[in-house]
């Protein structure tokens, strides 16, 4: 499962786990600080915000070359670019500082942060272990724009493959198409496949002409089977498979040059 729908909102599983861990930390902190009437919700919020800022800064530093053309993209977190280790360091650094400056909150804050980290780490690890065995390249057949049936394995031809799920009515899909097109040109050793979800070939052809796109391996999936098979409840979704057909990464939402470069490192 790559995403979860909460009403009209679709969240990636990673984001949902992060929010759940923060909620657990708030609950544990409230319970452990109740006897001494010590509120720590504000402190936990500061730590959470610090971890997000540190994670973003760490990611931007690592991929700064991809932000040089437009520095405003640094604050556009829609690309999902966060560095996990930098985020953990930021959270732990502020936690230590808070514990040192405010002795009264040491016990509830320590319990809250520890419970949040354990929740996030253990569930993330368990989810990764469960999904490892079911992350092979889907065997379903799709259709080229000329009506020829084809599988993803046939298109990949034993190369690493990037599979983009998209639709012409999806604004983030439209914005990321030039990024994917450029990556397709720059990485001839990687196969890029664009699987349209739920639309007819005529609609796809008109879209590509309208936006002056030169994309290879454009497939149609009029019944949107691939989204159901891969557990993707939102568009765009991009899946990354190695040459043996095993999924090595997935990205829910719009790709920037930096976030795409980060995911391509999985190969």
Could you give the order of strands across the largest sheet? 4-3-7-6-5-8-9
* Secondary-structure content class: alpha+beta
The helix content, as a percent range, equals 40-55%
Coarse morphology: elongated
Tell me the domain tally: 2
Question: How many beta strands in the DSSP annotation?
Answer: 9
Topology (SSEs and partners):
Layout: E1 3-6, E2 9-12, H1 13-32, H2 41-62, H3 84-101, H4 106-132, E3 141-144, E4 149-151, H5 152-156, E5 161-166, H6 171-186, E6 191-197, H7 201-210, E7 218-221, H8 225-230, E8 237-241, E9 247-252, H9 257-264
Parallel strand pairs: 5-6, 6-7
Antiparallel strand pairs: 1-2, 3-4, 3-7, 5-8, 8-9
Helix pairs in contact: 1-4, 2-3, 3-4
What does this structure look like?
With 267 residues, the protein is α+β, with helices and mostly antiparallel strands. It folds into 2 domains: 3-132, no CATH class; 141-264, Glutaredoxin, CATH 3.40.30.10. The protein has 9 helices and 9 strands. The protein has helices at 13-32, 41-62, 84-101, 106-132, 152-156, 171-186, 201-210, 225-230, 257-264; strands spanning 3-6, 9-12, 141-144, 149-151, 161-166, 191-197, 218-221, 237-241, 247-252. The protein has a 7-stranded mixed sheet with strand order 4-3-7-6-5-8-9. It starts with a strand and ends with a helix. The model has no long low-confidence stretch (mean pLDDT 90).
């Amino acid at each position: 499962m790559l995403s979860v729908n909460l009403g009209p909102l679709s969240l990636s599983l990673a984001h949902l786990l992060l929010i759940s861990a923060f909620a657990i930390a708030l609950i544990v902190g409230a319970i452990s600080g109740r006897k001494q009437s010590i509120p720590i919700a504000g402190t936990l919020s500061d730590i959470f915000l610090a971890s997000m800022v540190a994670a973003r800064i760490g990611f931007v530093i690592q991929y700064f070359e991809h932000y040089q053309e437009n520095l405003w993209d640094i604050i556009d977190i829609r690309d999902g670019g966060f560095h996990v280790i930098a985020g953990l360091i930021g959270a732990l650094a502020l936690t230590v500082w808070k514990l040192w400056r405010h002795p009264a909150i040491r016990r509830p804050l320590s319990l809250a942060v520890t419970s949040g980290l354990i929740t996030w780490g253990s569930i993330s690890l368990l989810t990764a272990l469960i999904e490892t065995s079911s992350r092979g390249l889907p065997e379903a057949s799709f259709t080229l724009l000329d009506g020829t049936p084809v599988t993803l394995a046939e298109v990949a031809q034993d190369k690493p493959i990037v599979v983009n799920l998209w639709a012409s009515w999806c604004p983030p899909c439209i914005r990321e198409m030039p990024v994917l097109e450029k990556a397709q040109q720059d990485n001839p050793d990687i196969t890029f496949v664009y699987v349209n979800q739920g639309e007819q070939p005529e609609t796809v052809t008109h879209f590509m002409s309208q936006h002056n796109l030169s994309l290879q391996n454009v497939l149609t999936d009029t019944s949107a089977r691939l989204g159901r098979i891969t557990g993707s409840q939102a568009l765009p979704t991009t899946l990354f498979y190695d040459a043996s057909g095993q999924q090595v990464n997935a990205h829910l939402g719009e790709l920037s040059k930096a976030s795409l470069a980060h995911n391509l490192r999985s190969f």
